[in-house]
Design a protein that fits this description.
Structural class: mainly beta
Largest sheet: 7 strands, mixed, barrel
Number of helices: 3
CATH class of the largest domain: Mainly Beta
CATH superfamily of the largest domain: PK beta-barrel domain-like
Oligomer: single chain
Order of helices and strands: EEEEEEEHEEHEEEEEHEEE
Strand order of the largest sheet: 1-10-9-15-12-11-17
CATH architecture of the largest domain: Beta Barrel
Length: 248
């Protein structure tokens, strides 16, 4: 099976913005570069060294308005610019202690009342993904189109916060890829497991408001709430939008 790499997307601060890329260099056993490199821990977080589970962080599943953030990252200076339709833009360095209070003030109004509020920015030196694996997420645009048709509304890719979107496969054929390898450009990725989804996918990423029962639809039509796959980079190499991919 072959197809085309349609999109590459990263989320430098977990749950706080998305950025599309034309190309990227993948390294073995590492996440997509700069994806979820930082995360916003809330005041009730119980953190340990290294990777931590998502329950410790502010995110769209608990504060839907966060889903409407877009971002750009200047890798050389490690400065991030965030934009939200209701809050405007802010530029800051997540590593700079003097910048963090300004970010926390900007983002606090986007967090739901009654929830633990954002308290600090943390980094593990690797992607703070929703799995302990140093993984990338791989998603099928054909499956998204099929789910959209079943629900009677067009679902944005941005609901799913994916890294690599593929064209060319039949809808839902990716469930047969567990344990298989995918070759893209100069890289080879090993598919490890499905991604079980949360309520963040119900949120319109343009407005930050819930408007699509994605989890109910997945359960109704397929008996689970999975969408997309986690894969680990086995062989590093450059990948770019428009390149072909194949199962090997």
């Amino acid at each position: 099976m072959t197809g085309t790499l349609a999109h590459i997307c990263r989320h430098p601060i977990k749950g706080h913005g998305r950025e599309y890329l034309a190309s990227v260099l993948l390294s073995p056993d590492e996440c997509l570069p700069w994806d979820r490199f930082w995360a916003v821990a809330h005041e009730a977080a119980k953190l340990t060294d290294g990777w931590n589970p998502c329950a410790n962080f502010t995110r769209g599943a608990k504060s839907p308005q966060l889903m409407a953030i877009t971002c750009t990252l200047d890798e050389a200076t490690r400065h991030v610019t965030l934009h939200h339709p209701d809050r405007g833009s802010i530029s800051f360095c997540p590593d700079a202690p003097e910048d963090v209070p300004r970010f926390l003030e900007w983002v606090r109004r986007l967090n739901a009342e009654g929830r633990a509020q954002p308290a600090q920015i943390v980094s593990a030196g690797r992607g703070m993904t929703d799995t302990p694996l140093p993984a990338l997420s791989i998603l099928s645009r054909a499956s998204l189109q099929d789910l959209s048709a079943r629900m009677g509304q067009e679902l944005s890719m941005d609901r799913w916060r994916g890294n690599l979107w593929l064209d060319g496969s039949a809808p839902w054929d990716e469930w047969n890829w567990i344990g298989r390898r995918i070759s893209i450009g100069g890289a080879i990725l090993r598919v490890e497991e499905r991604i079980t989804r949360c309520s963040a996918t119900t949120v319109d990423p343009l407005t930050g408001r819930s408007n699509a029962p994605t989890l109910d639809a997945l359960e109704q039509h397929f008996g689970h709430s999975d969408f997309g796959l986690y894969a680990v980079v086995e062989q590093g190499g450059g990948i770019a939008v428009g390149q072909s991919w194949s199962l090997i």
